[in-house]
Amino acid sequence: MLSLRGLAVLLTSASLCLGAPSKDCAFKPKETIAPPRGWVKHSSPNADHNVVLRIGLPQPNFHVLEQHLYEVSDPDHERYGDHLSKEEVEELVAPHQESIDAVDAWLSSHGIAESDVTRSPAKDWVTLKIPVSLVEKMLDTKYHVWKHTSSDDYLVRTTSYSLPSDLHDHIDVIQPTTTFGRFKGAKSTFIFDDEPESSVSDATKSTLAPIVNAASGVTVDASCNTTITVTCLQQLYNAVGFKPKAKGNSIGITGYLEQFANIQDLQSFYADQRPDALNSSFKFISVKGGLNNQTLAEAGAEANLDVQFAFGISHPIPGTFYSTAGRPPFIPSVGTPTDTNEPYTDWLDFVLSHPNLPLAISSSYGDEEETVPESFARRACAGFAQLGVRGVSVMFSSGDGGVGDGDPNPATQECFTNDGRNTTKFIPGFPASCPFVTAVGGTQNINPEVAVSRFFSGGGFSNYFKQPTYQKVAVEKYLEALPKGLYKGLFNPEGRAFPDVAAQGDRFRIFLSGRPVSIGGTSASSPAFTGFVALLNDVRLQNGQSSLGFLNPLIYKNGGAFNDITIGHNAGCGTPGFNATAGWDPVTGFGTPNFGKLKGVVSSH
Ligand SMILES: *[C@@H]1O[C@H](CO)[C@@H](O)[C@H](O)[C@H]1NC(C)=O
Ligand SMILES: *[C@@H]1O[C@H](CO)[C@@H](O)[C@H](O)[C@H]1NC(C)=O
Ligand SMILES: *[C@@H]1O[C@H](CO)[C@@H](O)[C@H](O)[C@H]1NC(C)=O
Ligand SMILES: *[C@@H]1O[C@H](CO)[C@@H](O)[C@H](O)[C@H]1NC(C)=O
Ligand SMILES: *[C@@H]1O[C@H](CO)[C@@H](O)[C@H](O)[C@H]1NC(C)=O
């Protein structure tokens, strides 16, 4: 009986496409892109070069999940804070059984067994590691090694792939195929800060009188105008004296690209700026083989920055650092390394399969939106929505390239579309452009605090994601005040606009390889902001309320709880970019947090 049933299943699926190709079995193009700017064909990959293929099955009920997300995140809705469980979310993103069956039949027709694949808990992603020669057969395509012209980045990619016609409705996306992202940390260069003064307490013993910040009305050490410490941020953002006490709170940092946070450097940082946190550390979690080499010289500037400031602000809230294996350095002439996807989808797979998650998570990584195919960007963005509806606040830095998330040097910025037409267009950053994350821009100086100018706070409008309802009023007000016709055709005024908020982003004093370093980038802004989100979660948990979860609907209804930044702009693409203005703007969002005010806001819903 069993074997007969097995045979019947096989026959049903097989009748679709095995044997003589019928109309339904013929390959039909699924996705085709123009060769992306800046990449040239280099060579053919070895036939046994391994590809970790990730197949996304449709999530037919995602719109229902989105509805839940907006209800539980809207402070005026009766379901505010009523987050969903892991199982409820999985049910909402599960594909139809027919899609699972159709994909399984296709894989088994290529000799791929169930034991060769891994599935996400909701079965909406199937992942398998196979040689590129087999991928080429399955997708009726040809892969090449591509080289980036102005760097040593190599990728194994194709510009077009096909699927049997009957599979088109059962597969949303397959990668790596057409993704040409370079996935950078949003960190500008850092300078070693071995000034004569050896500790920050010496540095802050300046003769300058403290400054009363006009926006927040609080007193700030004069040294904060040029050197940012944990104390500066507590003062500037009005959280002096607040001590987290709640049980069950947590905060997380993601690290990619072989970035490790060094525990010894963290202790040096604590000794310098947060002595009461000395001896405390964080939980390390390795994702897909992410490493954690604690040799001092191996510490990454990005990871150290994120961990030191996020955990320095939120101490003693328990912290977690995720090290996700990144793209290995890939040299096409040597061996056959595994070519991976954008690693944040690996990270999403991992965290979404766990029941307990950090309640506020910061990521300082991103790509130019146009280098991530829209289908793949949508799926990754849908993953962030799943975190939000489960009660996790997800922050991303907005990028350091102003309106063109490209070369940080404005003189050499070129913003051309990736579509082969070579027209000039602003280049938004992804995932900051995903409507389900909170994008954090950068500021500097105090009284006034202004948009950062050593590099430029990433901001603008998505070409993929339409403007979500929660931000329509704020964005329309900004666009109405924009000089008529300015930048017409350079950006999509109907797109998701970002950033949502901002925080200090330059001249952060951290420890790296045992030495104090001054570092900047919206890479600094996102973990700093996230530290304050963790404190706000503490306020709510102390009140017996839920965690905040997806923040944006709350932020856009309470813009007045932020210090409005009205000076500065975000140049890029050979233009001065957008201006910071009164109210929301695509440079600094609503501005920087006023913890004192936000405490009241989050307590009252
Ligand atoms: C802060 O630094 C900026 C830029 O260096 C300078 O223009 C401004 O006067 C300084 N503000 C104060 C209050 O010292
Ligand atoms: C950290 O540990 C050292 C050595 O055990 C101890 O002397 C010091 O008091 C500890 N500091 C804190 C803040 O716990
Ligand atoms: C850690 O880094 C050091 C220095 O680069 C190296 O010698 C050592 O082999 C690394 N350890 C591991 C486990 O990778
Ligand atoms: C795109 O246009 C710019 C400016 O017109 C030009 O410098 C560049 O060479 C063009 N690139 C391609 C690939 O056509
Ligand atoms: C920014 O402000 C300057 C000076 O007021 C103005 O000339 C420019 O048009 C503004 N740009 C935008 C994008 O609003």
CATH superfamily of the largest domain: Peptidase S8/S53 domain
Count of distinct strands: 29
Oligomer: single chain
- Weakly predicted, low-confidence segments: 1-15, 201-205
CATH class of the largest domain: Alpha Beta
Shape: globular
Task: Please render the helix and strand layout as text.
Layout: H1 2-17, E1 27-32, E2 39-43, E3 50-56, H2 62-73, H3 86-93, H4 97-109, E4 117-119, E5 125-131, H5 132-138, E6 144-148, E7 154-157, E8 160-164, E9 173-175, E10 184-185, E11 191-192, H6 200-204, E12 211-212, E13 219-220, H7 230-236, E14 251-255, H8 263-273, E15 283-287, H9 301-314, E16 319-324, H10 343-352, E17 360-363, E18 365-368, H11 374-389, E19 393-397, E20 429-430, E21 438-444, E22 450-451, E23 460-466, H12 472-481, E24 495-498, E25 501-504, E26 508-512, E27 515-519, H13 522-542, H14 552-557, E28 562-563, E29 592-593, H15 595-603
Parallel strand pairs: 14-16, 14-17, 15-16, 17-19, 19-21, 21-25
Antiparallel strand pairs: 1-8, 2-6, 3-5, 3-9, 4-5, 6-7, 10-18, 11-27, 12-13, 18-20, 21-22, 23-24, 26-27, 28-29
The structure holds 2-acetamido-2-deoxy-beta-D-glucopyranose (5 copies).
The site of one 2-acetamido-2-deoxy-beta-D-glucopyranose has 4 residues, from loops.
